[in-house]
Amino acid sequence: MQDFIEPEQAKQEKENQIRVLVLEPGKAPYAKQIENDYRAMQKLVDGCIEFVPLPEPDCHLYCNDEGKLNGMPGNRRLDHGDIICGTFFICADDGEGNDISLNDKQLQYYAERFQEPEQYTDKEAHHFEYEIKVMPPASNDMEDVLRMLGILGGSDEMER
Length: 160
Description:
disordered C terminus; alpha+beta
């Protein structure tokens, strides 16, 4: 005899699973139901997860936070130019910081956006480059710049 499942229990069980779009290197993206649990997410990306916001509202991706360092293959390039290495997945956000399933429109958008597998050389995929801009004070006084950087103290003497 089959056990009767209360409607509330069925709803809770369904919320424990979310529909995501999985992107593996060299493969077309595919939808998958996964446990809404960090351990399941870590297993999917083969390591500790890193949250990466996406420009489209209410969506983000999770990837292996050491994918580049561990030499995982390049997967897809994001709009800002960074290449995600290793498997990653995209899910939605409920606006309160909770991961939820992608709706049909989001799933279709990202499946089309990342449809074609991309190939990268190891050098290209594992290259790190960040630009840091420092704006000098309006006075352009070198002493003010050195104070701002903590090199000069209040007595105008160089500190160690």
